[in-house]
């Protein structure tokens, strides 16, 4: 009788550990242009790099229960791409290319089927590996104008860490350099049309459908958080009786970061003020670098321990 009593807790404990410690797996399909991160055969996120798109992006990004946290081609603003980085640039004094508003770059104006003349293209994976609760892949991209001329080389590193109970952290790092050491590139940002990275939240999690925006300062909603300084911002909602959310962590400690937030479901961190809402040259000797994390969690910001996870992230514990 005593053996049975001891065995039952042991079995329960082993099942709990297995649920917590499911290993991450990378599933790559070059024909469809998809690399997925799976946990126990469940998709966490997928990196989309097919040439049909104007730029690589992550979609879907799934909640711990498997719900869609982001939207790939929303209405309005169908140029939004779930989780992505893009901007507007100038080459010399003549060519002005808006990679963000990709619909401006169709070969035939107003005809999406014609494809793009300016686009951001995935070139290769520098590495892709999964080891236990961590999966990492690095992608090399080219920003291309006029069908074939590369103007920017981008390196984008993704590190996914499983945190148990379906929660996970996506640590993003990026670096942009002029292609071929060119000296004529200018980033042309404004205050409205960019965040790095940019997230387009699925309508079921948006503020317009009851979702809650919260920053580390305690500010709430678009009116209190948009164009305000913060270290992190969380977007959470209760959908089908389950409370879940996604937070974005800024890694920048030396310079404060302002944020873009929208109740309809868009949010993300800006670059430091000196590189935000203004024009600046992108030089070979001064690459544009950045880092941020996406934390997918159960509960709202409090129940999901967002503040604690942020601290662990910036201290290198995640």
TrEMBL record:
Keywords from the named record = Signal
Domain of life from the UniProt record? Bacteria
Q: Which InterPro entries match?
A: DUF6807
Signal peptide feature range: 1-21
Q: What is this protein called?
A: PmoA family protein
Origin species, per record, is Aeoliella straminimaris
């Amino acid at each position: 009788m005593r053996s049975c009593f001891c065995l039952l807790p042991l079995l329960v404990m082993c099942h709990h550990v297995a649920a917590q410690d499911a290993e991450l797996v990378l599933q790559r399909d070059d024909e469809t242009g998809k690399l997925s991160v799976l946990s126990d055969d469940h998709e966490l996120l997928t990196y989309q790099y097919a040439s049909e798109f104007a730029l690589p992006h992550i979609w879907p990004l799934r909640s711990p229960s498997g719900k869609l946290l982001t939207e790939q081609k929303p209405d309005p603003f169908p140029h939004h791409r779930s989780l992505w980085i893009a901007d507007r640039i100038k080459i010399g004094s003549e060519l002005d290319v808006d990679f963000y508003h990709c619909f401006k770059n169709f070969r035939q104006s107003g005809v999406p089927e014609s494809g793009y003349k300016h686009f951001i293209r995935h070139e290769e994976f520098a590495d892709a590996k999964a080891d236990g609760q961590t999966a990492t892949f690095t992608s090399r991209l080219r920003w291309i104008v006029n069908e074939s001329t590369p103007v920017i080389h981008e390196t984008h590193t993704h590190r996914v860490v499983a945190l148990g109970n379906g929660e996970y952290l996506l640590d993003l790092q990026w670096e942009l350099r002029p292609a071929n050491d060119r000296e004529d590139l200018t980033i042309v940002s404004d205050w409205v049309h960019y965040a790095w990275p940019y997230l387009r939240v699925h309508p079921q999690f948006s503020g317009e459908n009851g979702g809650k925006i919260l920053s580390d300062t305690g500010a709430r909603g678009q009116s209190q958080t948009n164009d305000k300084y913060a270290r992190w911002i969380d977007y959470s909602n209760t959908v089908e009786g389950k409370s879940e959310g996604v937070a974005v962590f800024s890694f920048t400690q030396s310079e404060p970061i302002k944020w873009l937030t929208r109740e309809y479901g868009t949010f993300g961190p800006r670059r430091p003020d000196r590189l935000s809402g203004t024009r600046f040259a992108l030089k070979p000797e001064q690459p544009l670098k950045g880092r941020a994390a996406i934390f997918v969690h159960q509960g709202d910001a409090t129940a999901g321990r967002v503040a604690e996870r942020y601290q662990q992230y910036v201290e290198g514990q995640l």
